[in-house]
TrEMBL record:
Belongs to the isochorismatase family. It is an enzyme of class 3 (hydrolase). Keywords: Hydrolase, Metal-binding, Pyridine nucleotide biosynthesis. GO terms for molecular function: metal ion binding; nicotinamidase activity. Residues 4-189 form the Isochorismatase-like domain. InterPro entries: Isochorismatase-like_dom (IPR000868), Isochorismatase-like_sf (IPR036380), Isochorismatase_Nicotinamidase (IPR052347). Pfam families: Isochorismatase (PF00857). This is nicotinamidase. Pathway: Cofactor biosynthesis; nicotinate biosynthesis; nicotinate from nicotinamide: step 1/1. It comes from Nocardioides agri. GO terms for biological process: pyridine nucleotide biosynthetic process. Its EC number is 3.5.1.19.
Length: 191
């Protein structure tokens, strides 16, 4: 079984100091960065991933996803705008040994990494299958939004899916709890 790590939206705007910060985002970025360092070093403590990929919010003009008066359910403050520092990966992720980066949401809301595409147009499902991946670990920001959507789509696409909760940050306890319950009910394993 080939397993891949999917790092979801660990971007400046979703960490402390960003336009849509999630408490604990910078810590999660640092912890994932440590895991990536171990993986890229290929030492005895390296996690057993065949591939490591990432997703990014990559908004140009996502319509009603951005709002001057957001409801924080379907509309949000401007975030991860292409060409801004907010769209960049958080510096705590350095090094960034990603095999592929999937950009999502240029002109619409996009929560799942499976809605993203690489610069050459590959979707996440096809990319993982082309590389023989059958199982994924998902981590990143936010547990109750893009991590949840990515994990649910991974299960729906037939991948054995596990969410690494210690490497995730959620927006709020109630929505995070509901997301965790929904993922478990769909067959996502939690670690």
């Amino acid at each position: 079984m080939k397993r891949a790590l999917v790092v979801v939206d660990v971007q400046n705007d979703f960490c402390e100091g960003g336009s849509l910060p999630v408490a604990g985002g910078a810590r999660v970025a640092a912890d994932i960065g440590e895991l990536l360092h171990l993986w890229s070093a290929h030492g005895p403590e390296a996690p057993a991933y065949e591939h490591v990929v990432a997703t990014k919010d990559h908004h140009i003009a996502p319509g009603e996803h951005w709002a001057a008066e957001p409801d924080f359910v379907d509309s949000w403050p401007v975030h991860c705008k292409v060409g801004t520092d907010g769209e960049a990966f958080h510096p705590n992720l350095d090094p960034q040994p990603f095999d592929a980066i999937f950009l999502k949401g240029e002109h619409a809301a996009a929560y799942s990494g499976f809605e993203g595409r690489t610069v050459d147009g590959s979707g996440l499902t096809d990319w993982l299958r082309a590389h023989g991946v059958t199982a994924v670990d998902v981590c990143g920001i936010a547990t109750d939004h893009c991590v949840r959507a990515t994990a649910l789509d991974a299960v729906a696409a037939g991948f054995e899916t596990r969410v690494l909760l210690d490497l995730c940050a959620g927006v709020a306890p109630d929505t995070t709890g509901a997301a965790v319950a929904e993922m478990q009910a769909a067959g996502v394993r939690l670690a």
